[in-house]
Amino acid sequence: MLAAVLLFVAGCGGGSGGDSATTEAGLRDTPRGKLAQQPAASCAALKDYVAESLTTLYTNGGGLPCADCLVTLAGFPPAAAARTEETTADYFTGTNNQEAGVDELDRIEVDRAGRFYVLDGRHLVVAQGSPASALAEIGHLELTDAGDPVGLTLDEDNSRLVIAVNRIAPSPVARSGFIAPGHLYEPVTELLFVDVSEPSDPVLSGRLAVEGHHLALRRVGGRVHLVTHFNPAMPASIREDAPLQALHEQYLAAPAGTAAATALAEDIEARIVGLLADVPVGNFLPERWQASADEPYEAAAAGDCTGVALPDVPMRFALTSVTSVDTDGGGNATLSLTNNAWQVYASSDHVYLTQTSGGWWWDERQRQQTVLYRIAIGEGAPVFRSHGMVDGWAESAFQLSEHEGFLRVATSRNEFDPAADAWVQDNHLHVLEDDGAGNLVTVGAVTGYAPGERIFSARFMGDRGFVVTFRQIDPLFAFDLSDPRDPRLLGEVEIPGVSTYLHPIDESHLLTIGINGDDTGLDWQMRLQIFDVQDLTRPRLLHALVPDFGAGTYAWSLAVYDHLAFNYFPAAGLLTIPVQYWGESPDSHFSGFASFGVSTQDGLTDLGRMDHGDLARAAYCPDPATAGLTIACDEGHYLESATPRRAVGGVIDGEQYVFTVSDVGIKVARVERVDEAVAVLPLEYPNIYWWWF
What we know:
By secondary structure, the chain is mainly beta. The chain has 8 helices and 43 strands.
């Protein structure tokens, strides 16, 4: 839906022109220097850039805007939202963050006293989990008017929660020269600031809304850093201008490089500049709204043109913004960069935005490269520091890592080389350093390894790095990064299948999850593995387990592709992951959790299952005969509603427990009997599913 209806300034097709060099191989090199971002000198300069961007779009094969990409939705801003005894637990596992000290959005948070903060549909539920046998809800906050909550982060030191919410709404402010308000699809990301100093009575204390699609949120201490992507809508004056459409059609028909084509390009530019003259520049800037809990949003904050950074080369105009704000809603400040970055990696000091060249810059001959933007974060406003570029594409945050001032990036390349008349597929590992003059400079690299394969997962651990590539086998490569200017690939081990996530057990061992396979390809069964990586020259597989979920059954786990669903409990040597599968009959369907013992010495052991299907049936099929749900309930469709999320390990009064959390409830069991609940808490705010009516 997002791809279908989102209106880009750049329209719906084609790439921009621009000043790029052609290599001997016939591919386009990115002019890295021209991608440097400089603050706009004025609002006039920003509007000039928009005009140049549109002109290069129209004169380089770009399509006209999607005239029918419109929807009508409910209004925004919303109305103002309405508004125990403490025990101390020994230890609880938290969110499985990529970087220590950099908290990621999750649907479940746990504090040191064993209180769970869970997003349940459009509600926040607070539950007391210590003592485990007395698991119970102690408070909740209705978020009924809050769109679709996507996650929360807990600033326990300051007793605050920040909840991120996705909205799809019409433009909240009339915009002169644009599509009529009330008919413009517009993503808005809202942050809700919640005071949990009294956990049994969570209180909404403030709200902040940012125009744009939510990409990521990271919390470092008492400050959160929200990354959003904003695509300004095409002004109606341009979208509906018949003379401009006619010029565009004539330009497309003119032979490339001729005087006629050049003259038409100049006419297109003049026409666009004239049409933009009466469009307020603020329409090209993301707006922000802030309010207290019990007050409606006031007028949007005026956009600051000089707060936008522009490159020297025209690209599809869109803004990726980093908004930094305290966990109580104070001190918010935003930096916007002109790019189409969609991938975000964050350390405790920097946010990195990555933009791959595919489909975003100039033409189909563009080389596969990735540009990286480094933004400093801290107590004040985010600040653009530097940018760099590497060959290949980095398509996961786990392919990036900052360590002692250096950025490590693992990339894959798969492109046609006209000079060799063949496809080239290989992988690279780059190490970059900020030179203090606005550049991320490559100071070391390992290039061209694993030809014919591509990266499926990566993990950096201090001065070591591990990369898994895949074709039909699963090679794990081990890198020594102790000298960032001389990174070295020291060893590899090949295993059938592919690992999609790598988790450090300790400094010498990796626990992985992925898909099983043999020398003919994948068989799509889940596979767990333990690798010994103490000797980087000789990494080796210690143990592997393909869990048995029944003949003909292919289990699905969110943990295969979402690291937040992967919960390793070190104190108990326990891995617990969400699992769902359809058996041969409805009675053998399953929606819940599987637990495995993890020992570097003794291997991997299947310890059992914790079913949440009973909670789903109780919530959705209490009386199917009268509810009109006979088919859905008899065939087990209600199990979809269980949606197992993730587990939490806990040590309480010296005993070890595992809590499993789904969309329909929380169950807790002792580690010795992971399939036997000692307490159950149903979550009472069900979602709507296709089969439920």
